[in-house]
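It is worth pausing here to work through a concrete case rather than discussing structure prediction in the abstract. The textbook approach is simple: state the sequence, then state the predicted structure, then interpret. We follow exactly that order.
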Amino acid sequence: MLKYSLLGVLLVAITVIIHAVGTTVWLRRLSRRFANVANLHRPSQSLRILIGTIVVLTILHTLQIMVWALAYLYFLPDNVLDSFEEATYFSFVTFTTLGYGDITLAGGWRIISGIEALNGVLLLGWSTALLFTLVQRTWKDMLRQDASNNK
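Step two, the predicted structure:
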């Protein structure tokens, strides 16, 4: 059980690094590209920021899911998951806690799939918090801009 837990923790660390680096790079890019002198955003910029952020977060989560899928393919005994596609499907279902149950793992691997689900909940929550912050920020900036235009 310890070896499965340690592998799970390693995979969590890798996916957290992916998410931290990806979101940091994205936020730095946003701050350079979209912030003007008054630090206000036009509505068209706000839409681009939100759509771009959702695309970037989707790519990051897909990469994280693929890390788990590669680990399943590499470490699981032969014939448990037959292909990268099947491992990725299982990882998507597990990471998002969708849990169809059409593919299940046995023994200590159930612990790893549980750790992946926990990892997915935490990283998806992180993404939700980031999106909420961006929506809140763009909303405040638009209200500030409207107030300054109405003076």
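Step three, interpretation. The radius of gyration is 20 Å. DSSP finds four helices and no strands in the chain.
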